What does this fold into?
Amino acid sequence: MCGAGRLPNVGHMSERTVYGVALPASPRRFDRLVESARLAEDLGADLITISDHPYIPTELETFSLLALLAGRTERVLLAPNVAPLTLRPPAMLAKAAATLQFVSGGRFVLGLGVGGPYEMTPGFGGAWPRLGEAISALDEAIPLIRRLWGPEPVDHDGTYFRLHEASAGPPPEPRVPIWVGSFKPRMLAVTGRHADGWLPTNAYLDLAEVPGMHRHIDEAAAAAGRDPGRIRRVFNVMGTISDRVPERNDRLLNGSAKHWVNALLDYRDRLGFDSFVFWPVQGDVREQIRLFFDHVRPHLDTKS
It folds into this structure.
């Protein structure tokens, strides 16, 4: 199991496209969670993600669910989509990620952000009432998390975090990739400076803005002495696969399997995304997963 799910940490025009699924953390659908995860793995998914919104009372705790899935799957990568730094301090994030990397046999990806909708985080004990502070804290936290995965204890006296002889060991093997969910210029700059991947969602952006968002990431990466091409570009695509046209929503992708194929090819070839996470929002999750992997993904592979 240890090496089967590892993927190369390569850039947004990489040869290796990753296809994933976002599963719900709802207790109403808990009986289908493991079944859906195993179905996705059997059909060829590379990645399974679960959204991380601890402040929403109708959702279960994401890291606990990921630990469950680590024991019920064999090959797929697993990731929170995405963990809120405001509620999960870097030392505990580093420890949790190292543990999940260990128990999954090297199949964990740390999806990370500041939390959203952000206004809900202060009421749940979020560390910073203002979004700007949280973004600055994330800028400090990502390199700190990586240091905590190292072999030596960490002393850190920063603006937002203070640690003394802290370690999140044992060091994870292989190194845990960090993908950041970001949309606005400051967060995109943090992504470019520090992240292994960019993980935005179609429901929260205008497709016309995507080229400019890539530029923000690339410029910040270059300024930090990093190769922008090493930053994976992973697109969460929310919507429904159906021949019956659902209620119109310009921010979701709704339509037939052929419509999905054409759209994802456009997102790849024109907008520069190298990987996709299918996020079904209507219908039976298992049937949506079957439609995606039986009728969408094969056509993407043949046209890559």
Summary: The chain has eight helices and twelve strands. The first strand starts at residue 19 and ends at 23.
